[in-house]
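Lecture 7, part 2: worked example. A protein chain together with nicotinamide-adenine-dinucleotide.
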Amino acid sequence: MSEQSEPQDRTVDLVVIGAGPGGEALATGAARAGLDVVVVDRHLVGGECPYYGCIPSKMMLRAADSLAEARRVGVLAGDALVTPSWTPVATRLDQEATSGWDDTIAVERLQDAGATVHHGVGRLDGAARVRVELTDGSSVTYEARRGVVLNPGTRPAALPIAGLEGTPYWTNRDAVRVTELPGSLVVIGGGPIGCEMAQVFARFGVRVSVLEAGPRLLGPDEPEAAAILEDVFVSEGMRVMTGVEIAAVSYDDGAFTVALGDGERLVADKLLVAAGRTPNLDDLGLESVGLDPTARSVEVDERMRAGDRLWTIGDVTGKGAFTHVSMYQSAIALRDILGEDGPPARYHAVPHTTFTDPEVGGVGMTERQARDSGLDIRVGTAPLEQSSRGFVHGPGARGLVKVVEDAARGVLVGATAMGPAGGEILGFLAVAVHAEVPTATLRSMIYAYPTFHRTIETALADLS
Ligand SMILES: Cc1cc2nc3c(=O)[nH]c(=O)nc-3n(C[C@H](O)[C@H](O)[C@H](O)COP(=O)(O)OP(=O)(O)OC[C@H]3O[C@@H](n4cnc5c(N)ncnc54)[C@H](O)[C@@H]3O)c2cc1C
Ligand SMILES: NC(=O)c1ccc[n+]([C@@H]2O[C@H](COP(=O)([O-])OP(=O)(O)OC[C@H]3O[C@@H](n4cnc5c(N)ncnc54)[C@H](O)[C@@H]3O)[C@@H](O)[C@H]2O)c1
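Predicted complex, written out as structure tokens:
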């Protein structure tokens, strides 16, 4: 990791604290536009997504999906002997995804764009002023003429479960660095991280139990999608327990024991805690600019402004903890910093995809959210496996399309696409929700036969 030597206190144009995907892109753009930019990251430039999040987890899922597809050969095309090995996965994660969890390339890319990069902790020290504690223990202070951008992201939430603290449990950061598979794994949390990781390890032969406190997996998604996913997980040999209360965790002799509120005890080699995130707002000097360091998010306006010469982007804005939201906000904040015009931030069509198999894609509001917002809605649903393409696809074709229409305006305000290519089909629905395409127009289109996306036409016909 290359650093500048002996940095001096000075006035620059812009300081970016936290180089998640949005911060990195913003700093690169600002430096390329000629601003004097300083970037500070306490760990790896690029943030959670490339090293511990999206990229390594999707690489793991790709491997797990290849095993599942090979196991379908028996039904579709003869025989295939499937012998899982984690070695190619660990090698790809190390060498291709993360360069050995080393950010040299990302640092050099920023430096080539003209930015100064520090590994260290950045903290606000009043308006447009940042104090950086460098990794060697020294510190440097910057005044920022244009201001400061915060992109500090989140960390795995530490659960207040008796006995858990101090045990060698995994978070997502450990799960992507696994070199040897355990025999058994308990996953606490049935959100996107828990579901994606659980399916990966189960498909590699690990005995997996998922413990979810809420009433279903993927709580914020449509309940119909969650029900299908639970069904698939169970059919693949996983144990899924919803509505659980975890009373205590202990670790002895290389095994975890998870004691549930109802008296049951689960024993496993490893424990993955994927039960939400804590925003990195507590050690950022927010109090020096009148903001609350204990808050769950930083309030921003439609230009990502959070105060006097202060912008905030990414997960901590509470607008959707996704890389694409961080990048979207990054472009808006950069335009504002450079004094350029452009559309303000809008969040009516935030898409997301959980990359389980089947994938669960969603955009805009769920049926529940739309009803709760007071809209008069109509809902249409169509099962994927009953479409011609689903029938042809055979094993692995579980899924659905669900559309939620604002009946008064005749436009979709939300949609779900679940299936082998749910995240890709979602693209169509994201356009419809984003651009408020009239449902009448969507119904008058021609849908290629026999595609998965033709299920959208069936769901639209079901609007009632
Ligand atoms: C396992 C997993 C899978 C995921 N999969 C997906 C996916 O498929 N698709 C998707 O869109 N999203 C996914 N996400 C979410 C995605 O990783 C985040 O939304 C994304 O990284 C954007 O976060 P961010 O921009 O807020 O910052 P982050 O990526 O969290 O980066 C913040 C950076 O700030 C640094 N930092 C924090 N405080 C300071 C400080 N005081 N001084 C200096 N540096 C500081 C940190 O070291 C870090 O590098 C996944 C997350 C996880 C954990
Ligand atoms: N494919 C993707 O886009 C993707 C993948 C992974 C993560 N992410 C992002 O990262 C965020 C964080 O993911 P996450 O899955 O950690 O968090 P999450 O908050 O989305 O889900 C955590 C789950 O853990 C459950 N939980 C909390 N405490 C519990 C307890 N004591 N016992 C049992 N269950 C408990 C919650 O009810 C919830 O369902 C996601 O919300 C998403 O924004 C995105």
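The domain at 9-46+103-155+278-337 is CATH 3.50.50.60 (FAD/NAD(P)-binding domain). The chain is about 30% helix and 25% strand. Keep this in mind for problem set question 3.
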